[in-house]
Amino acid sequence: MNESIASEIIKKYEPIEEAKQEKQMSVEGFIRYIYSSECLLFNNEFEKVYQNMHHPLNDYFISSSHNTYLISDQLVGPSDIWGYVSALVKGCRCLEIDCWDGSQNQPVVYHGYTFTSKLLFKTVIQAVHKYAFITSDYPVVLSLENHCSPAQQEVMADHLQSILGDNLLSDTLDEFSDKLPSPEALKFKILVRNKKIGSLLETHERKGSDKHGQVEEYEEYEETDQDEEEDKVKQSPSLTILKNSPGKERQSKSIIGLPLFKKKKTTKVKVAVALSDLVIYTKAEKFRNFQYSRQYQQFNESNSIGESTARKLSKLKVRDFIRHTTKFITRIYPKATRADSSNFNPQEFWNIGCQMVALNFQTPGLPMDIQNGKFLDNGNSGYILKPQFLRDIETEFNPRKVPEDSNPITLTIRVISGIQLPPSYHSSSNKADTLVTIELFGIPNDQIKHQTRVIKKNAFSPRWNETFTFIVQVPELALIRFSVENQNLIAGNEFLGQYTLPVLCMNKGYRRVPLFSKTGESLEAASLFVYVWYTR
Fold first, then answer.
1. Among 509, 534, 381, 530, which residue's Cα sits nearest to residue 452?
2. pTM to 2 decimal places
3. Pick the catalytic residue: 66, 159, 426, 450?
4. Is residue 26 within 8 Å of residue 35, measured between CB atoms?
5. Catalytic annotation, pick one of 54, 55, 111, 450
6. Burial class (CB in 10 A: 0-12, 13-18, 19+), 134
7. Which of 86, 260, 423, 527 is 20 to 30 A from 536 in CA distance terms?
8. Contact residues for 535 (Cβ-Cβ < 8 A; gap 6+)
9. 168-208: per-residue pLDDT in tens?
10. How far is CA 402 from CA 346, 392, 406, 480, 504, in A?
11. CA atoms of 25 and 42, how far apart (whole Å)
12. In what helix (H) or strand (E) does residue 498 lie, and over which residues does it extend?
C-alpha cells in the first residue's frame, strides 16, 4: 500500500466530497471499501483462468460428479434434469449418466435396480448441450455407465451426434493421435467416456461409414475386492440379524459367504460400433493392477476405482498409485453403501493425484465445501493444474511423509470479529453463542484445527481478536475452511456458515471472509473480519 493506491481507494469509495478533497476517508467510506470485492479474502487474480491450459488432460484435477441425475438418495429419490444443470453451472466438468433400455426404443437414465425415477437420455443430452459451457469453456466429459442393449446404444449415439453437433468430439485431433490433448485444445468440446472396441486408427478409418447394426463383443476382466464385497453386505438384513444374535458375530462372514480373497471373472460385453466410435480420448478401462497398467494401458484409457479399493491402494502402494495418476486419468467414486448419497473427503485422493474425484453434488456438507473451495481456483473453470510433484513420472512424493525439498509457509490468521452472523434457530431469542473454527486440509501432516473462544449471545457483532499460526508443509495442496458455529453442549454445535478456499488463493492483510450456508448459498452480509499473513 502506498499513497497513490490509498488515493485511488478514497476516490472510489468515499461518498463525502469534502473528505475526498482532503484525501481522507469517513467511516461510511471505509465500510464501503471493506464490503467491496477488493477486501475479500479470495484473491481476485485467481477469479480468471491464469494457469497453463496446454498440458495434457491427465495433468489436471477435474471437477467431477457421481450419479449426477440424482437430487436426493440413491434408492428411492427422484432423478431430475436439475442435477445436470446445477452441476454444470457450478463448473463441474465430468458428469455421470447411468443408461438403461427404455420403452419405445428410447434409453432412460436412472439408478438401476432401485426405485429412483427415470429420465429420457435424449432430455439429459439436450440439457447438457444447453448448459455445458455456461460457466467454463473447457471440455465436458460424459461418463456413461452403460447397461443398454446394442440397439438402444445406437439410439444413444444418434442422440449424441444430432443434439451435440460440432461440440461432440468424434475423432482424434490432428496433433493428438498418440497423446492426450490439453483442455485448451478441447475448448467447447464434449467427450464421451464409455467402453470402446478397437483402436483410434480403426475408428478414424470408419468415419462416415454406415455402422447401423454393427455390434462387437469383448470379454471384460473383473476383479472384486473383499473390501468391496463387505461394503455391499454391511447393511444387509441377514448381517444385522447375525450381529444382534449373541455368539454369532464370528460366524457372520462365513455364513453370508464373503470371499477371503479377490474373485476374478470375465464377462462378455456387447458394444454398438456407432457408440464405441464416439469414444476417443476417454475410453473406460477396468483397473487390474499397477503393473498391468504400466505394461498395457493405452494413453487414452482411464480407470474408475471405488473409494474403498482406492483407499487401500493409497495406503499399500502409494508411490505406484501416484505414478499411475501421472500417466492416466483416474476416477474415484463413492462406495455402494452410501445409499444416502453421503460423500467422502476428496482431499485424500487429490493428495495422490487422482484427476476425477466424483462426489454426490446434491449432498451438502464438509466434502462438498472442500470440493467447491478447491475449484474456486483458476477461474472456476473446473480444471486445476496439478503441482509439478504430481505430474512428474519419476516423482518420489508421498503425502504421508513431509518432502525433503518441501517449501513450507508460515501462516498467521487473526480472527478479529464477525459481522451480522446468522441467528441460531435453536435459541428462543435467536441469539447465538458464536465461535469460529479454522481447519486446514491437505497432506495428513498439514491437517489441523484451531478454535476461538465462545462469545455469548452475540451473533450481530462478536469480537474474538485471537491469533493462530499454522506451518503448512505442502501449501500447493492445502485448503483452509472458516466455519462459524453456535455452541450447544447438549445437542452438538449448530452450523451457522462457512467459507473454504485454497491457502495460496488468500489475499494478505485485513480481509473480509464471506459466509455461505450449508447448501452453498451466500449469506449476504454475514462475514468475518480477519488479518492474514504468510511467508515462505
1. 530
2. 0.91
3. 66
4. no
5. 111
6. exposed
7. 527
8. 409, 410
9. 999 999 999 999 999 999 999 999 999 999 999 999 999 99
10. 20, 17, 7, 19, 18
11. 24
12. strand 494-502
